[in-house]
Amino acid sequence: MPYIHIKITDEGVTNAQKQSLIKGATQLMVDVLGKNPQTTFVVIDEVPTDNWGIGFEQVTALRLRQAQ
Q1: Could you report the per-residue pLDDT of 8-33, keeping only the tens digit for each?
Q2: Which of 1, 2, 10, 41 is catalytic?
Q3: Which residue in 1, 26, 31, 52 could disulfide with 59, CB within 3.0 to 4.6 Å?
Q4: Active site at which residues (predicted)?
Q5: What's this model's pTM, rounded to 2 decimal places?
Q6: Is 9 left (phi over 0), alpha (psi -120 to 50) or beta?
């Protein structure tokens, strides 16, 4: 019973995109490991950019700088 945990920043990911992630991750388990899709669990956590850091900075600050 695979459990796949996907963490992404909360930056306007659509429901359709989340469905594609779930479908793709499940299909990967089927293709690579021969797992049953009916018992494969996928959880998507959306993390606020203030709570996600790269290097020494919050993603919020990085995105603001990139927008300038």
Answers
A1: 999 999 999 999 999 999 999 999 99
A2: 2
A3: 52
A4: 2 (proton acceptor)
A5: 0.87
A6: beta
